[in-house]
């Protein structure tokens, strides 16, 4: 039991943190508005990481809840099942989203139907489903969890590429820089990482599905994400490579989804 006075104190603390988060988010996203498309994308992602860093939920990979540190990527138990060549992922969308936001979310989902055998379908009675909610920050569990699993698109998160990023987590993918072969492609700078955030850069045992490392993946962090001093936390070993885009899925992102779910040629051809 929580005594009323304690409850009031907890609520006040919570509300104060929420206000702090909202005002920080507004300022950060606003500061991106006058920038060009590419710079905007990088700016928006940095804002989201900053916003996420203010929230209370513990996120192990910046946007992956900590209690799910088990690696789903190499474990097929966390894949969504396929029926008749189609992987149906049921979802619900909270009524907290506006009509315009729901359109962005549905457009981002439609890209999966057009280029993979994964189809996000409105939930009817399915037991396992993704519940899209507007909580603090942008985050998702990795892979199918069983029952309802939340995916948050908070303030500053409802953008095409960011929605796809979180949906790809739900399909059972970690970040690109967590790949088992990442040291051949990027250098991590632990000395520049915010103290306590080093786990975001952990190398994991991943099934890379025969795909080459993709600097441009929508699942890759930007160069200065979680930087304590403004210096790079990740440097591509190919100097000309740029990392951290959030325009949307790349061909390699799509290829990996199709490989993980063993999408058949015929199921893809049906969509063209
Ligand atoms: Zn992520």
UniProtKB/TrEMBL annotation:
Its EC number is 3.4.24.-. Residues 71-264 form the Peptidase M12A domain. Zn(2+) binds at residues 165, 169, 175. The keyword Cytoplasm does not apply. Its cofactor is Zn(2+). Pfam families: Astacin. The active site is at residue 166. GO terms for molecular function: metalloendopeptidase activity; zinc ion binding. InterPro entries: MetalloPept_cat_dom_sf, Peptidase_M12A, Peptidase_Metallo. Binds 1 zinc ion per subunit. Keywords: Disulfide bond, Glycoprotein, Hydrolase, Metal-binding, Metalloprotease, Protease, Signal, Zinc, Zymogen. One of its GO terms (biological process) is proteolysis. It is an enzyme of class 3 (hydrolase). Gene3D superfamilies: Collagenase (Catalytic Domain). This is Metalloendopeptidase. It comes from Periophthalmus magnuspinnatus.
């Amino acid at each position: 039991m929580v005594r009323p006075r304690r409850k009031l104190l907890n609520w006040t603390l919570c509300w104060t943190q929420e206000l702090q988060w909202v005002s920080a988010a507004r300022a950060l996203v606003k500061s991106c508005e006058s920038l060009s498309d590419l710079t905007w994308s990088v700016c928006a992602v940095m804002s989201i990481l900053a916003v996420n860093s203010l929230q209370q939920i513990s996120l192990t990979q910046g946007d992956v809840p900590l209690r799910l540190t088990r690696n789903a990527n190499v474990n097929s138990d966390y894949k969504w099942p396929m029926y008749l060549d189609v992987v149906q992922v049921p979802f619900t969308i909270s009524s907290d989203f506006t009509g315009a936001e729901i359109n962005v979310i549905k457009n981002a989902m439609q890209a999966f139907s057009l280029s993979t055998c994964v189809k996000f379908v409105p939930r009817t009675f399915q037991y396992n489903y993704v519940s899209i909610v507007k909580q603090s920050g942008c985050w998702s569990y990795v892979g199918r969890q069983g029952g309802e699993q939340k995916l948050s698109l908070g303030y500053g998160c409802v953008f095409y590429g960011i929605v796809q990023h979180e949906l790809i987590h739900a399909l059972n993918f970690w970040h690109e820089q967590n790949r088992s072969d990442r040291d051949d492609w990027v250098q991590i700078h632990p000395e520049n990482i915010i103290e306590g955030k080093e786990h975001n850069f952990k190398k994991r045992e991943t099934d890379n599905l025969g795909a080459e490392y993709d600097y441009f993946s929508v699942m890759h962090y930007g160069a200065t994400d979680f930087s304590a001093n403004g210096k790079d936390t990740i440097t591509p070993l190919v100097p000309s490579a740029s990392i951290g885009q959030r325009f949307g899925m790349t061909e390699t992102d799509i290829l990996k989804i199709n490989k993980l779910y063993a999408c058949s040629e015929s199921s893809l051809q049906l969509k063209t």
